[in-house]
Specification:
By secondary structure, the chain is mainly beta. The protein has a single domain, classed as Immunoglobulin-like (Sandwich), CATH 2.60.40. The chain is built from 2 helices and 7 strands. The strands form 2 sheets. The protein has a 4-stranded mixed β-sheet, with helices on one face. β4 and β5 (82-94) form a beta hairpin. The protein is globular and about 35 Å long.
Length: 129
């Protein structure tokens, strides 16, 4: 399934044309057979304070919009070792068959171990009821 890009209003206003093009290029190479929610990891970086930033494309493969409010986000490396986990409260609506870029900023206490550049990272998002 191919997705179209959708930006949160804040991202729409703050991203440059070049940054938007980068996300659109990443999305053009991503496909998923998932008819619900899938995650395309864009980049995972360690912050100077020991925290972590995980930027992803949240892909909604459903025919209805996806509303995200409270979510648990986990970041694993290619060996499936957990490197970060935290609960986030966000207010995001992703249209049907669309993908939205989003960054999750983890506090140092939510990070387990160092981020290795160029590692293969998997980001998982779980709705919290």
């Amino acid at each position: 399934m191919k997705f179209r890009i959708a930006y949160h209003p804040v991202w729409e206003q703050t991203l440059t044309v070049a940054e938007k093009k980068k996300y659109e290029q990443i999305l053009s190479k991503y496909s998923s057979d998932n008819t619900s929610t899938s995650i395309c990891t864009v980049v995972v970086k360690q912050k100077k304070n020991g925290g972590m930033v995980a930027t992803v494309l949240i892909c909604n493969g459903s025919e209805t919009e996806l509303k995200l409010t409270t979510t648990r986000v986990k970041v694993n490396n290619k060996e499936n070792t957990s490197h970060a986990s935290a609960e986030f409260t966000i207010d995001v609506i992703i249209p049907a068959y669309s993908a939205m870029p989003w960054s999750f900023v983890f506090k140092p206490d939510d990070v387990f171990g160092n981020v290795i550049a160029n590692d293969e990272w998997t980001v998982q998002i779980f709705p919290v009821e």
